[in-house]
Design goal:
HIT family, subunit A; alpha+beta; about 15% strand; globular; binds zinc ion; five-stranded antiparallel β-sheet; about 160 residues
Amino acid sequence: MSVDPFCNTDEISGTIFHKTEHFMILYDIRPVVRGHVLFIPKRHVTDLLELTGEEVGDMHRTFAHAIPKILGIYCPKEQSYDITSQIGAYSGRTVPHLHFHLLPRSKDDGYQGESSSSIYEDLKLEKTHFSRKDVDAEVYLLRKEFGYKPAPRPV
Ligand SMILES: [Zn+2]
């Protein structure tokens, strides 16, 4: 795996399910909860504050369009979520390309009550109890929901 998979189209093309002018959304290959996705600017930036006004506008429209859609699938009753980004060398980030984790939360997500804060620990450790097959099934579902048709791979 390269240091920056988010600049490597080959590495992420299998999990992308939505693209806008400046952003893409993909399913995390090590999801901590069901519906764990990443919002990522197409341009390589490391810090939220490097985004241009136009990119911030697109980011907001992307959030406003996609978050309700995703919550509608993964936690339609609760409509609860965490959104988090680690920025800078001491933040615990793993990939130095800006990305926002969206974590749909529900009473059955395994992180309620006393273990509620360990979701961040598992995120940092990239701990998952989902298989690649589970991930592929979610990508399939989200692509259908978002009407995303990936370009066929060149032979
Ligand atoms: Zn990058």
